[in-house]
Specification:
It comes from Synoicihabitans lomoniglobus. The chain is of the alpha+beta class and 265 residues long. The chain has 9 helices and 7 strands, in the order E-E-H-E-E-E-E-E-H-H-H-H-H-H-H-H.
Length: 265
């Protein structure tokens, strides 16, 4: 249940936080109480308050990742009460506020649970697996001209809008955390489609999707569950339609590569 956001009365909360010193060590939940909280502070500011108290007591602060604190980068990714990024739709963890909860609530905070995202410490996970997928083909390496040439290339508005929708993906990994199979297909679908929808992405279109999908599989991400938890948890509301678009591209690319003639020596 989400609290009434009209209240400005300070509240008290208990955070049940996952503590784990490193990847090889077993972790556990530890409760931390915080009182006299301004309901307008963000969830990350709440963690700052608890860490200030821990440091004053000479205890180890809670490790969590963050950067922009504006819902742009996705670094702040947390699972809050069982939901990636928290109780609201279309926002990141850093945009979740204390007013989203009721006075006296116990809030469970944990890292993303997925084998390709090992826990580094406490709430921080290693999501470099996404970087490896991007490095496998999420780019354009052929010459496409200067900026003025791009402006002279006609692109249907529908394609341009879809490419912008796909490009909104911030690579936070919420889709993986939400999926029972730890699938990364929404992320890969968005990154593949972003370039496949544009003229500049056509020369490497087939090799891009083949490389990125094979890298995704090699890194241990699971298959799509077809239940669309991924798009429901996405802070940028990336549509699961991009998964279907990627699957079509992958099937076509696989077929073409099987019958493609080898270059003459």
């Amino acid at each position: 249940m989400v609290a009434d956001t009209s209240s400005t009365k300070n509240i008290a909360l208990t955070l049940r936080v996952w503590r784990q010193s490193d990847t090889a060590t077993e972790g556990k939940f530890v409760d931390y109480k915080a009182t006299d909280l301004n309901p307008n502070m963000s969830f990350l500011e709440l963690l700052d308050v608890i860490n200030d108290d821990l440091e004053q007591r000479g205890e180890e602060p809670i490790a969590f990742a963050h950067d922009c604190r504006e819902g742009i980068c996705g670094t702040c990714s947390l699972v809050i009460d069982g939901k990636p990024h928290g109780p609201h739709e279309g926002i990141a963890s850093c945009q979740t506020y204390v007013r989203s909860f009721n006075d006296g609530d116990v809030i469970v905070v944990e890292p993303y649970r997925a084998n390709p995202f090992p826990v580094i410490k406490d709430l921080v996970t290693d999501r470099t697996a996404f970087d490896k997928i991007q490095q496998a083909g999420g780019f354009i390496s052929v010459r496409t001209g200067a900026a003025c040439d791009a402006n002279a290339t006609p692109i249907p508005k529908e394609n341009a809008d879809l490419a912008m929708d796909a490009a909104a993906c911030i690579g936070c990994g919420a889709c993986v955390a939400a999926c029972k199979n730890s699938s990364a297909m929404l992320f890969v679908g968005a990154k593949v489609s972003q370039l496949a929808l544009l003229p500049q992405g056509q020369p490497e279109r087939d090799q891009r999707v083949l490389n990125m999908v094979s890298t995704m599989d090699a890194l241990g991400f699971g298959n799509c569950s077809n239940q669309y938890e991924c798009s429901a948890a996405c802070p940028k509301l990336i549509s699961h339609d991009f998964i279907a678009r990627m699957n079509r591209d992958y099937t076509k690319a696989t077929f073409r590569s099987a019958f493609q003639g080898k270059p003459a020596i």
